[in-house]
Amino acid sequence: MADFFVAGETLVDFVPGPGATLRDVEGYAHRPGGAPANVAVGLARLGSPTAFWTRLGDDPFGEFLAETLADEGIPETHVERVAGKTTLAVVSPPDAAGPRFGFYGSRDVAFGFDPDAVPAEALAPPDGEASPGGADAPPWVHLGGAALTHPDGRAATRELLSAATEAGCPVSFDVNYRAALASDGDAAAASTAVREAVAASDVVFCSDEDVSAAGLSTNKGAELARDLLALGPHTAVVTLGDEGALAAASATAPWGPATVRHDGFAVEAVDATGAGDAFTAGFLSRIAGARGDGSEDRDGDGDDALRDALAFGDATAALSVEAVGGMGSIPSREAVESLLAGGE
Q: Which of 162, 168, 156 has its CA nearest to residue 116?
């Protein structure tokens, strides 16, 4: 059984070449992307076996993404191929006005998950009963918020959350709300679905922009984390860009109550696309061993577990911004550990 089960979109990112505005850019490079896809591949690169439920179009871009996932060691079991054109996410140059991403192609392909096709069997332990911390423990489930902008994506996410709860899976949720993806009349329903997903999750990841766009909170930093904890999760992680990240956990968290911050690493940034996803993969790969299930003894103090996971996530993100593209720039576990140990 996989350590993690990730669900969500796989897209093609079009990353601009040098230039501050669109007039200055001479061309774009296509790169595999999509926040959940980046997290799934990141976890695999960091040494955690990961299953991934996603949808790809039947066009050449879909074939490109299918080959990329296979090359990254993602099993094809839950990679669906459907009729339609793959969604493209065009990244804006750094000084361009408006949203950072513009989306083109079929929303139905990337986000229209079939609620009746939720692979609940992938979440249950082989013998139907999990032993805490054992090899037969259920996988950690990770979801993204972009699919909630689509009616079928919302329904499928609710079904998957229900199946994960029934199977006893820890659940993490990346708010990652993209208002531009919600069609007319869907914005209110999408915002409500984001709030429900936060409440149904154990660990939530976000930036203040994500949360503000989804209508959950206008606060920032530690106050934002506290707002999210009040909605139901036991741990809230707020990414702060080049200033690092912070995490807050309540008394119900397996690693105990704590509020900690890590200031990140000084690196020469080339492209920040997918840096938040790299952070999420790094954080999850580290915190999953501190579930409080007997696999590690944290003595009821969450400071060490969260501080360690924040540092690992920030190191993963720092290395990822040194190359172009989200998915392809995620480093190996050895590279992350070298940075944490003070290496190059």
A: 156
Which among 314, 210, 321 has a CA at the least distance from the CA of 272? 321
Sheet (strand 101-104) strand order: 28-33, 11-16, 88-91, 101-104
Q: Which CATH class is domain 4-340?
A: alpha beta
Each residue of 183-230: pLDDT tens digit?
A: 777 889 999 999 999 999 999 999 999 999 899 999 999 999 999 999
HSE-CB of 258 using CA atoms within 13 angstroms: 22
Residue 215, classified by CB atoms within 10 Å of its CB into exposed (0-12), middle (13-18) or buried (19+), is middle
Write the DSSP assignment of 251-266 as a string of letters. TTSTT-SEEEEE----
Tokens 């696999």 correspond to what residue? 295
Which pair of structure tokens corresponds to residue 245? Answer: 């990240």
pLDDT in tens, 135-177: 578 999 999 999 999 999 999 999 999 999 999 999 999 999 9
Q: Assess contact for 313 and 286: CB atoms under 8 A.
A: yes
- The Cα 34–Cα 229 span in angstroms is 26
CB contact at 8 A, 28 and 14: yes
The model's pLDDT over 14-25, given as tens digits with 9 standing for 90+, comes to 989 999 998 899
Give the integer Cα–Cα distance in Å for 234 and 305. Answer: 14
Q: Which residues pair with 29 in a beta bridge?
A: 15
Which among 298, 319, 295 has a CA at the least distance from the CA of 307?
298
Q: Nearest Cα to 114, choosing from 84, 75, 158, 145?
A: 158
Cα angle: 183, vertex 188, 190; to 5 degrees = 70
Distance CA 121, CA 128 (A): 10
User: Are the C-beta atoms of residues 55 and 86 closer than 8 Å to each other?
Assistant: no
Lowest mean pLDDT segment, chosen from 38-47, 101-110, 219-228 = 101-110
